[in-house]
Amino acid sequence: MTNKTLLQGFEWYLPDDGLHWRRLAVQAPLLKKAGIDSIWLPPAYKGNGGKNSVGYDVYDKYDLGEFDQKGSVPTKYGTKDEYLHCIEVCREAGLEVICDIVVNHMMGADETETIRVVEDSFDDRNQQISNQKEIEAWTRFTFPGRHGAYSKDIWTFKNFNGMDWDESDHTNGLFRIVGKDWNQETDWENGNFDYLMGVNLEMSNPDTARKITDWGKWYMDMTEADGLRLDAVKHISHDFIPAWLKELKEYKNRDFFVVGEYWSDEIERLLHYLDAIGNQFSLFDSPLHYALHYASTSNGEFDMSTLMNTSLLKARPENAVTFVDNHDTQPGQALESFIAPWFKQQAYAAILFQEAGIPCVFYGDLYGIPHDHIPPVTGLVKMCQARKLCAYGTQKDYFDAPDIVGYTRAGDDFEEETLSAKSGPGSDQTRHEGSGMAILMTNSAGGSKRMYVSMRYAGERFVNILKPTDTPVEIGSDGCGDFTVDDGSASVWIRESAYEVLETTVLD
């Protein structure tokens, strides 16, 4: 996904009107013009909340908005036919489609079962805090509204290892089924972080693995997804997902892009997971998100030179999907750590033009979040377009000061013979007219920084796309320019010739 930009195509508080698939289908051509290459669609299957479900409270993964279950036929986003049409239209517009996959847990069972459990501590799942006892658990999924369409599988307590609710006396607790253990290869937070919510799937159970694999093959046939976003991988046995993906790829006889959500601000945990799975897929760079959040809330005290120090982008760039915010970090959500609005441009400037990693733009930043009266990030569309037009060539970093930091991209707009000489076998030898740029960010006072772009641009002028009224910067014979940035802001400088063709796309 070289020089690709991914869009998270939803936010938590979208209206429960069943129209989102239609909205995205209309927006798809405009998103492509805005510099978006791939779109991550929200979970498309029926959740326990029916038409009010964002999709992470999974009830029936075979119901993509087709059956009358949980109080509605459509999901929050629309019907199955609208979903498949949205995927088709996105592809026709030139967008790759990344589908959201949730296999850790299920919710909203149709019947209870009487089972024997012990209770473990939420804070230390290795500590048992009760003797054996019987509870009534919501663990039997029969999907009566689907009438066996696509799959006749039912799920029972045999497919799970734990839950957090006893229906017999309406109490919460972390209940582990007698004779079963938590999956051992998971994140070590709380001793063992296998359990997250609902009824927890026992991945070591062959019947559970078979059911998930059968569904995965059906879903890939139904959607022909270009890639997958995997939810909550830190809570799933580390050996399950790689084996599951291997089987899907062999079944489809093709490779596809995969990114996992491993939520932690500690880079060591992400690296441990990547090592455990043999670096088979990418992870969202949550440590970098937290660094951006700290920078936006530290009243100018954050040392900007350290911004990338603990990021996945620095430690394992080939596995990094960078982001500013998402549906979990937006206001009101469980992982709320929303980047302060005044720092949004700097945050996107930090990730969008990098030579490594794949940046993911948040729907709530591109379109705003009406629920919380949050407007779109000013200039974000221009920044996405500038990435597509200009972010090529060697990167040179200037993370060398506590306040003003930046980096440049040298561009690849040079003579064919030079291009061929510098390109190895199989390299992309496309020349990008107008490529080359310089980026500055500060969380404190503004100023200037002399940065090298390329001697090829000697005498050329660079324009700040975020503030075109700024005096253009002329590149000297040494390939350097004195680039400026205002207090508490970002500046994105591109060649004047490129600015003249930079599109302005309006997203409705």
Please describe what this structure looks like.
The chain has 508 residues and is an alpha/beta fold. The protein folds into 3 domains: 6-101 and 264-390, Glycosidases (TIM Barrel, Alpha-Beta Barrel); 111-201, Elongation Factor Tu (Ef-tu), domain 3 (Beta Barrel); 395-499, Golgi alpha-mannosidase II (Immunoglobulin-like, Sandwich), CATH 2.60.40. Helix content is 24%, strand content 23%. It contains 12 helices and 24 strands. Strand 21 and strand 22 form a beta hairpin. Helix 1 packs parallel to helix 2 (80-92) and helix 8 (344-352) runs parallel beside helix 10. It is elongated. The relative contact order is 0.10.
Label the CATH architecture of the largest domain.
Alpha-Beta Barrel
Count of structural domains? 3
Query: Which CATH class of the largest domain applies here?
Result: Alpha Beta
pLDDT < 50 stretches: 415-427
Secondary-structure-based class equals alpha/beta
CATH topology of the largest domain: TIM Barrel
Percentage of residues in DSSP E strands: 15-25%
Tell me the distance between the termini: 27 Å
Tally of helical segments: 12
Nearest-angstrom radius of gyration?
A: 24 Å
Level of helix content?
10-25%
Mean pLDDT: 95
- Indicate the overall shape: elongated
CATH superfamily of the largest domain: Glycosidases
Number of strands: 24
Main sheet specs: 8 strands, parallel, barrel
